[in-house]
Amino acid sequence: MKQPLFIIVAIDGGAAAGKSSTARVLSERFNLMHADTGSYFRALTAEMLRRGVSPGDLPAVRAALADMKLATRIASRSALIEIGGRLIGSEIRSPEVNAAVSHFAAIPELRSVLLEYERGQAAVARERGFRGLVMDGRDIGTVIFPDADFRFFLHADPAERARRREKEGERDAVAERDRIDSSRKTAPLACPAGATSIDSTHMTLQQVIERMASSLAEALGQT
Ligand code: DC
Fold first, then answer.
1. Residue 154 is inside which H or E element, if any?
2. Residue ranges of domains in the chain, CATH in brackets
3. Closest C-alpha to ligand 1, atom 1
4. DSSP 220
5. Any residues with CB less than 8 A from the CB of 23 and at least 6 apart, and which?
6. Largest CB tally within 10 Å, which of 13, 188, 210, 216?
7. How far apart are the CA of 148 and the centre of ligand 1, in A?
8. How far apart are CA 198 and CA 91, in angstroms?
9. Distance from residue 202's CA to the centre of ligand 1 (Å)
10. Among 74, 190, 69, residue whose Cα is nearest residue 141
């Protein structure tokens, strides 16, 4: 098989399903740029909260969005988002952000700002000489890159996912976030048509990684 020059890998799934950890390892193994879009929604949420903007106040959300200049900083293989030249640090994992992020993520105007930014990451990855882009989130294979070369949907039992978050020392209502993320009107969490669906409830992270890596390696003619 002829080796494609540039590949796009979309990984979608619910909260704490292991998407970003898997994507990070794939990015190293296949020299892909990694874009964790959950961290983008979290960074915008943290910035909104810092400005005292609530998700119910649409005029204030719109004004804040118009005032946020987004850029990308590459750290190793990760594409991090900068807002106004600033990286938003550990506060993106705070209980306040965990509780607010799904509400901000349901706002169409905020999603359209990130849609444009996220699609632009393919050009960033090319310019930086990566072999491709691995992007994880909720709507990557359905909306952002529906023609992605590889589409995976990762899911696991909610109790198992809550347990994983607790082990990481985080307070996070994963089932409640999934409920809001799956029921919103714009780009809801859903398994993309034709995606490879993986239930990781009884799998280790390593097993999930190997399952995806073998699909990539096979298609890329790499063993
Ligand atoms: O992957 P995560 O748990 O860090 O994502 C945080 C929230 O961001 C998630 O609850 C919903 C939102 N999100 C989204 O709506 N679309 C994406 N592509 C990624 C995340």
1. strand 150-155
2. 7-218 (3.40.50.300)
3. 38
4. T
5. 9, 11, 34, 36, 134, 135, 136
6. 13
7. 19
8. 30
9. 23
10. 190
Write the DSSP string, 158-171.
HHHHHHHHHHTT--
- pLDDT band for 26, please (50, 70, 90 cuts): very high
Structure tokens at 140: 């990557």
Distance 41 CA to ligand 1 centre (A): 6
Protein residue with least CA distance to atom 13, ligand 1: 38
| Residue whose CB lies within 8 A of the most ligand 1 atoms, among 88, 94, 115, 138, for a mutation test | 138
> Under 8 Å CB-to-CB from 166, ≥6 apart: which residues?
none
- Asked if residue 3 lies in contact with residue 220, where contact means CB atoms within 8 angstroms, the answer is yes
64-115: per-residue pLDDT in tens?
999 999 999 999 999 999 999 999 988 999 999 999 999 999 999 999 999 9
Dihedral angle over CA of 169, 171, 176, 181, nearest 10:
-70
Nearest to 72 by CA among 109, 37, 105, 98: 37
Measured CA to CA in angstroms, residue 85 lies from 71, 73, 122, 218 at distances of 7, 9, 21, 40
pLDDT, tens digit (0-9, with 9 covering 90-100), for 124-171: 999 999 999 999 999 999 999 999 999 999 999 988 888 888 888 777
